[in-house]
Amino acid sequence: MKILITGSSGNIGSKLVKLLADRFEFTGLDRLPPRSGPQIPTVITEAHEVEDLRPALAGKDGVIHLAGNPAVDTPWPNVLRNNIVLTRNLFESCRLEKVPRVVFASSNHAVGLFENDEPYSRIRAGDYAGLDPSTLKRIDHTAPLRPDSDYGVSKAFGEGIGRSYSERFGLQVACLRIGTFSEKDDPTANVRMRATWCSHRDLAQLVSLCLTCPDLRFEIFYGVSGNTWRFWDISHAAAVLGYSPMDNAERYY
Amino acid sequence: MKILITGSSGNIGSKLVKLLADRFEFTGLDRLPPRSGPQIPTVITEAHEVEDLRPALAGKDGVIHLAGNPAVDTPWPNVLRNNIVLTRNLFESCRLEKVPRVVFASSNHAVGLFENDEPYSRIRAGDYAGLDPSTLKRIDHTAPLRPDSDYGVSKAFGEGIGRSYSERFGLQVACLRIGTFSEKDDPTANVRMRATWCSHRDLAQLVSLCLTCPDLRFEIFYGVSGNTWRFWDISHAAAVLGYSPMDNAERYY
After folding, report:
1. ipTM of the complex
2. Grouped pLDDT means (10 residues each) for chain A, 253 residues
3. Which of B157, B164, B167 lies nearest to residue A160, judging by beta carbons?
4. Cβ contacts (< 8 Å) between B159 and chain A: which residues?
5. Domain A2-252 is found in CATH 3.40.50.720
6. How far is B235 from chain A (nearest CA, A)?
7. Per-domain residue ranges for chain B?
8. Do A160 and B147 touch (CB under 8 A)?
9. Which residue does chain B place closest to A85, by CA atoms?
């Protein structure tokens, strides 16, 4: 499969290219050249316009859309340009170029305000007293959107336009609400990661399954490892994709 | 209560001013001057910037946010400027000016793709064979977003940022997914309106209740009359607000 990966030079993009290079024929798209690691052909563009994206999408079988500002505290003007407008232009370009499938890097911050509520507020702080992970009610793909930031709002926007394009134009769209992906692949930087960590190879597995699974229309999955204290659901990804995480932050604690 | 009404010179705005002028102290905001009818002080602005909105919001007790392109086929550049950016700037201005409450004119088009599914597809076409309105499963505020257009995506966006501002900054936000509001207040223009009509006085009742009800935090309601064939829920508005519609399109058929 010929896959365009936007944001290919970024933290997540460069790791996915490395882990999945033997399974997909990648082209990158980024405003910066590739980091060290496997060098893939990369279109360098700020991608402000549909016309910046279309040539890179022509003839592709799918796209992994990671480009955009990744920080939860990104100011609104950047969120607007690099997350909202760019993501809309990406979907529109896929429609125009008849690219059948999009894996959209959404974020846990689309539903981040659940972490103000118990028991999630306690789990994220490392206070597990009286809690049993085997009976924990987890946040799943049917939860209402509760974005915790302009960044989170932009990810909710991307899911909304993704669903609209999926149902109106037949685009196949998988939204991954990615948890905490750390450059060093280590869940011990803060105690919240004991719940929210997504290891490199587990995200690579999810992305690969989203690109290859048959009969995808529109789905939302959580990008999280099989952490004992995860508060996001992975049973939907297991049922639809066969996702079976290899990692659990608990082994590091 | 001192209320700013954006889009005050438009179709819905001018009707609400007329029906509610004796209950609220209105200031208008629009890019055009008021139509005929009760003349209210009106700030004339394209409202592209937060600074265009803030002076009009200073000291207000609430805002009815109707401004934006109202057509479902509005092209993306206009949706982006007049619905997405303007709505974000409205919420941000309310935060800065400490305006406690926003009634946001969302739209049924945020969930419009349900009308591709049975039984809604048949009801909207006037085919009621074998259907019983008393047992109809109606689309409620917990339904997933299924925007049918860029316009619908912009309304979903407004709800998302509204929820985020509500939970993060304590803004009280009511989103009204308005059905079909016709200038002539007549549900017979097309058969879909037998389901989707929202009469002038029923919308005025809803808006008034949203402005005055105690303990509002974030809510989504459908702006629809008590039509026998409505496929949107009004029981949530009845329970939270005491909404009791006076009209039913069926009387016109």
Report:
1. 0.96
2. 97 96 97 85 95 98 98 98 98 98 98 98 97 97 98 98 98 98 96 98 98 97 98 98 98 96
3. B157
4. 145
5. yes
6. 19
7. 2-252
8. yes
9. B80
